[in-house]
Amino acid sequence: MNKCFVAMLILLFSVMINACGSSTKNNENNTDENHTDIAMQLPSIDIIKLKGKIEYKHFEGGFYAFIDSKGSKYTPINLDKSFKKDGLKVHIVAQRNLDIYTTTQFGEAIKIIQIDLIDSDDERINTTKDR
């Protein structure tokens, strides 16, 4: 039992030492690698452009949702009061917020960056930026 314990300690220490010494490269040689590591740590900004309708949903106390032309569901977390109209056709540019959950549990939460009204000919008629 004592030999087994010693063998386990040696194995544990060798793994720890190996893990600590795995990146012994010179800074000149791994500058691109460092930039890649930093970029991988930054949160990705997922910007989407969608066309669809604002709809009022009566469940969960009532809220305004966005349903795109393909039927995907979104909950805009910063929809301006002037666009809170059931059936309003709009084109939006938005940022996905995958780390935000809402009580509506209706599709993805999005932050609107730009929203444009669309007339019956699918032409933009009003622009609101930087929400």
What is the beta-strand fraction? 35-45%
Strand line-up in the sheet with most strands:
1-2-3-5-4
Q: Provide a count of the helices.
A: 2
Name the shape in a single word: elongated
User: What is the highest CATH level, the class of the domain at 47-129?
Assistant: Mainly Beta
Number of strands: 6
Explain this structure.
With 131 residues, the chain is α+β, with helices and mostly antiparallel strands. It has a domain of 83 residues: OB fold (Dihydrolipoamide Acetyltransferase, E2P) (Beta Barrel), CATH 2.40.50. The protein contains 2 helices and 6 strands. A hairpin with a 5-residue loop joins strand 1 and strand 2. The chain is elongated and about 80 Å long. Keywords: Signal.
Secondary-structure blueprint:
Layout: H1 2-20, H2 31-41, E1 47-57, E2 63-68, E3 73-76, E4 89-96, E5 108-118, E6 124-129
Question: Briefly, what is this?
Answer:
Residues 1-19 form the signal peptide. The chain is α+β, with helices and mostly antiparallel strands and 131 residues long.
Give the tags.
131 residues, single chain, OB fold (Dihydrolipoamide Acetyltransferase, E2P), elongated, alpha+beta, 23% helix
